[in-house]
Amino acid sequence: MARERTALSWRRTAVSSMGTAALFINHAVSSGWRHTAVAPLVAAVVLAVLAAVSFHRGRALRRGEDHRSGLPVTATAAVIVLVGVVSLYIGLTDPLR
After folding, report:
1. For residues 27 and 95, is the Cβ–Cβ distance under 8 A?
2. According to the model, what pLDDT value does residue 68 have?
3. What are phi and psi for residue 83, nearest 5 degrees?
4. Contacts of range 54-60, beta carbons closer than 8 Å, 24 or more positions apart
5. How many CB atoms are located within 10 Å of the residue 20 CB?
6. What average pLDDT does the segment 14-37 reach?
7. What is the pLDDT of residue 47?
8. Is 43 in contact with 83 (CB distance < 8 Å)?
9. With helix as H, strand as E and coil as C, how does 13-77 read?
10. pLDDT given for residue 49 in this prediction
11. How far is the C-alpha of 52 from the C-alpha of 56, rounded, in Å?
12. pLDDT of 40-84, one tens digit each?
């Protein structure tokens, strides 16, 4: 049961990162593709990569492959910190109108 729960959590991570990437893309489009759109687009690309890694990690767990590498977990934590910093940057430099 633990492996199935872990696989589902990786799938939820993939879905939530794609949703957040869509929000960053929406912000870039609604801001008129100014120079401030670079940060949300970078965050969206990084989140798309995270979604792919999370999806593949969840599939591997469902197939029974048990790789004990901490790289996906470390990468996920790093992406979350990066996206948080980008969100803070956007909030401070481009507040809501």
Report:
1. no
2. 73
3. -65, -35
4. 54/10, 54/11, 54/13, 54/14, 54/17, 55/10, 55/11, 55/14, 57/10, 58/6, 58/7, 58/8, 58/9, 58/10, 58/11, 58/14, 59/7
5. 18
6. 87
7. 94
8. yes
9. HHHHHHHHHHHHHHHHHHCCCCHHHHHHHHHHHHHHHHHHHHHHHHHHHHCCCCCCCCHHHHHHH
10. 94
11. 6
12. 899 999 999 999 999 988 888 888 877 777 888 898 999 999 999
- The residue count of the chain comes to 97
Structure tokens at 91: 């909030």
* Residue 4 token pair: 């199935």
Structure tokens at 73: 């977990």
Cα–Cα distance measured from residue 40 to residue 21, given in angstroms and rounded to the nearest whole number: 8
Structure tokens at 31: 């801001």
